[in-house]
Design brief:
The structure holds 2 protein chains of 2 kinds.
Chain A lengths: L19 H6 L8 E9 L3 H9 L11 E6 L4 E7 L5 E12 L3 E6 L7 E9 L5 E9 L4 H13 L1 H18 L9 H8 L1
Antiparallel strand pairs in A: 1-7, 2-3, 3-4, 4-5, 5-6, 6-7
Chain B lengths: L1 E7 L2 E6 L11 E10 L1 H7 L10 E2 L3 E9 L10 E4 L2 E2 L5 H4 L15 H8 L5 E2 L16 E4 L7 E2 L6 H4 L5 H11 L7 E5 L3 H12 L4 E6 L2 H9 L3 E4 L5 H8 L7 E4 L10 H11 L8 H9 L5 E4 L12 H6 L3 E4 L4 H13 L11 E4 L3 H10 L7 E4 L4
Parallel strand pairs in B: 11-12, 11-14, 12-13, 14-15, 15-16, 17-18
Antiparallel strand pairs in B: 1-2, 1-4, 3-5, 3-9, 3-18, 5-6, 6-10, 7-8
Helix pairs in contact in B: 5-6, 5-12
Classes of the chains: A alpha+beta, B alpha/beta.
Chain lengths: ~190, ~400
Amino acid sequence: MNDTNPHSDDAPPTTWKRGDSLGAAAISERKDDAIVARAVTINRPVAEVFAYFRDFANLPTFMENVERIDILSDTRSHWVVKAPAGKTVEWDAVVTEEAQDRLIAWTSEPGADVANSGRVEFRDAGARGTVVTATIAYDPPGGVIGKLIAKMFQREPAIQARRDLRRFKQLMETGEIATAAMNRKQHEEELA
Amino acid sequence: MRALAWHGKHDVRVDTVDDPQIVNPRDCIIKVTATAICGSDLHLYDGYIPTMQAGDILGHEFMGEVVEIGAKSTLKKGQKVVVPFTIACGSCYHCGKHQYSACDNGLPADNQDIAQELYGQPMSGLFGYSHMTGGYAGGQAEYVRVPFSDVGPIVIPDGVEDEKVLFLSDILPTGWMAAENAQIEPGDTVAVWGCGPVGLFAVQSAFLMGAERVIAIDHFPHRLELAKKFGAETINYEESAVYEALMVMTGGIGPDAVIDSVGLEAHGFFVDNVLDQIKASTFLGTDRAHSIRQAIIACRKGGRVSMPAVYGGFIDKFPLGALMEKGLTLKTGQTHVQHYMPALLNAIMEGKIDTTFLISHRMDLEDAPKGYDMFKNNQNEVTKVVLKPGFN
């Protein structure tokens, strides 16, 4: 990638002001994909953080829009994700790359309601714990339903990814996810 | 339960609302025995703080009895505790450095967006202080859900009266940290703007830390009297020119350290302040800030500026040049309450710090709206209002 880097600085490709498609190409073959990248530092050992994330069945505990993930095999999973107006979108995902305690990447299989791929890197940060960098690429869909979905996926992935990572950090560091709900009824309404 | 809810500018009411419950494993529920109205609650009352919603329960200075505990709380039912106003997890990097008000995890994930946009990074949660600080229900109520109860609340020994320890929740540690941030050296002269509760505790703390002289600045005669009681010299800014007085009183040097405990609603009709008021009312700028400007100008070269006062947004005509050219050090921040509580509880128990002198009014929680009105409109006599559920 360095061969094609038109930049003189060390900023991550996903933060480049121009050459977006090069940034997208860093993680996705579909060069028109929208790209979201977020980093968070979690004050826990990298092995623990990686292990929790690698078990995709855990992801709905902190990914607000993900209703459930069924594990189909060691590398394949079925995702059910909330969409506007009480609808859901679904896809099968397959792990494309994995390195113990360092990296997990996945992509949706053909036929997905929303084609997408993700790449999460884990780096041991010593006394500060683990740096988790997540990059999500997705293909904004067309059509009427597509527009509804896009409403969620175009406007929100940046916010959603940031919030999901914060919840992941809270769960890893404090054992719970912060809420201002005064009682359990309010809390259930928040999660619905 | 009954609770004091915000409904708009100068409109607070005691409403009947749902009781709180344990939601997360580290929570506890306390039955409030005493709670106070803070000067910073007046910022909410006056409508200066954004992201308030009708029905929000106010109050961040409170204490009470533990009546319910979550599976991971380390408290026991029946214990008397004082609750820090900052909601901090105790397990993130910042809590590890005792920078509790910078906790990464005190705010719900969704509520972190505003502070992230406005300040660059989100801060800890606060009780009863707008949705930007978490939207947590506050302590001017009969019951409160307290998150992270295993690291926040401090247990009070049996037999100690509430009023002696209540201010551990905010204003005592805030006054103490203000003096600590002034990095006082023996022999120093320290000037304190604002003789509200934080300023008065800063006066006491500064002397305990070795200041030789403390000069207190306000315009309420009664508050200046209180400062004098603790050994401070006073300047009434309605009667004397503050900068000139300070320069003469310090032999032309300026105070070694200055503490601004006034904040965004500085009183007084100074030219820059009037401009700030016009801008605040037209949303061009949110903070009125005469005290911090004056403090920086008065401070001696190479001196220290401590700013415990609450500022939320932007100000202009900030004397950045004076700060730089004079080589001043500026330290500030929301109080790391959890860090200071144990030592300050000891200081109270040993009689080194007087806390109860501050309380001018005691009322039933039901009378809280009257308390706000009095505190807002008669700051000379009303130094601190303590609310007690079932007091009448």
